[in-house]
């Protein structure tokens, strides 16, 4: 019999999907999977335990281990970086359009200043890098090796970013790929070996974004795997109604001002979400500040910012490190003026779904 595997984020949509699966299939034929990025709020783990008990469906937690890759990278920095850093890197134009836009037009001519970011339409200039002097190169290698010598931290998100020497961005969202998509796919393949075929149920709704609206409700990807999006046409209200119908509480984070449940914070967090997190969960930004220091130490440029840096996407602005981003989140008028009404700490209902009681 086809096994039903429900992807779980501990958010409202995946919970509604899991509840729907329990209505349509025997419990012994359902399981759920949660990919732990290591950048989660503690309430996420608490909610998963509650949900597992309440629904009586096992939730498998997948947490990536990058130890092998870490030591491979250590060797690469030690053996290859000394020569690489002493050579200049030419700049180049990169096509950076959404996936559904095919490449058109000519590659633009090189910009006047090849060492800074530029953008022409969907063409993005990846700046050239000057070669380093012997002293500078030795310093970068020694500093980076000092981070790697300590061994992996055991936090998947942080280890991945240290290995990459940078944080993900909208155009290079490797966090999703390595911490969620890859482990979930590998796990689904394991279940196919065991059960013969698997339906991967995903709590994706069309009204969340244009990209999600374009997804099919059912996709046979072959090899015994079918992707099913059974709440694709549901509204947020229908999702919460499904919780009520089964007597299941939504994740508490919704009633604490969070519009979505996922990484805390997500690299794609908007201005309001950054402000909300900084007021309610400042310890998460303290952690990100420390991560910026560590990833910066392991980067060639000795600088890494968690939120998109200038040039990383169409709307990117000069935001800088996490403390500057928090300051920006407190401003109005295009980010120039501190708006003291945005600093008001009164516990007004900030939930996008009106869940505060
Ligand atoms: S895109 Fe956001 S939520 Fe997804 S893995 Fe990256 S940081 Fe986490």
Ligand types: iron/sulfur cluster
Low-confidence parts, pLDDT < 50 over ≥5 residues?
Answer: 310-317, 345-357
What is the second-level CATH architecture of the domain at 3-65 and 174-250? 3-Layer(aba) Sandwich
Estimated structural class: alpha/beta
- Termini separation: 43 Å
Number of helix segments? 11
Put the structure in a nutshell:
The chain is an alpha/beta fold and about 350 residues long. It has a domain at about 5-65 and about 175-250: Rossmann fold (3-Layer(aba) Sandwich), CATH 3.40.50.
Could you explain how this protein is built, in words?
The model is unreliable at 310-317 and 345-357 (pLDDT under 50). Helix 1 (12-24) packs across helix 8 and helix 5 packs parallel to helix 10. The protein has eleven helices and eleven strands. The strands form three sheets. It has a six-stranded mixed β-sheet with strand order 3-2-1-7-9-8, with helices on both faces. A three-stranded antiparallel β-sheet has the order 4-6-5, with no helix packed on it. It has a two-stranded antiparallel sheet with strand order 10-11. It has 357 residues and is an alpha/beta fold. The protein has a domain at 3-65 and 174-250: HUPs (Rossmann fold, 3-Layer(aba) Sandwich). The longest helix is centred in the middle third of the chain and has 22 residues, at 174-195. Bound molecules: iron/sulfur cluster. Iron/sulfur cluster is lined by residues 37, 168, 173, 175-176, 179-180, 262-263, 266-268.
